Amino acid sequence: MLGWWIFAAEHKKHPIPGLTKKILDDMVMWAVFGIVLGGRLGYVLFYKPDYYFAHPIEIVKVWGGGMSFHGGMIGFILAFYIFCRKYRVPFAPVIDVLACVVPIGLFFGRLANFINGELYGRVADVPWGIVFPYGGDQPRHPSQLYEASMEGILLFALLMYLLKFTQARQKPLLLGGVFITGYAISRIIVECFRQPDDFLGFFFGYVTMGQLLSLPMLALGLYLIFRKCPRSIPS
Predict the structure, then answer these.
(1) Alpha helices in the chain (DSSP H)
(2) What is the pTM of this model?
């Protein structure tokens, strides 16, 4: 809701053609649908395909946990692609401004992970190590807070600076590319401190699933940033 409020305020200052107030009010529903459906299916396909294909009824039990950010991002993008086609709104400026507010959700999501004591870090000897309820009796990296700081606070600050104080919006999908690149870099770094899922472990001896899924994101983000295209979006 905070992201929607910021998006609406930005749209008021720099209107996106065809995006009326009525259409704007529908955006939250589209965002939630895309994130939940994509996040769940991404978890099913990326993390436990064998289990869920053998127990398909379990796929719909989202209350039991199991969401993937990478799947949620794909669902989010597809949902708004359909949204823009349906309402005849330009896709690039919508995604660019949305990309600037997504870190808000990532920040609160990682705080929720920390409060729940889930997705904790690896065993650590740092002074700020924390003993998590489900992580044994050894202190661990609070990797959820690392992610909240990098994917949430730092990425949000960078994107909002680019949005408000530079001409980044003039290049379609540049801000989207910065978000994807920033998230991928943050996730790859934090995965070095995060405990991998027990049922997956490491790939190639030291690489996690989160890092593998972030590599295509990094490539796509860099492409969107450095590709050449006409600056056709009005300021």
Answers:
(1) 2-13, 21-25, 27-46, 49-54, 69-87, 91-116, 143-147, 155-165, 174-190, 209-226
(2) 0.89
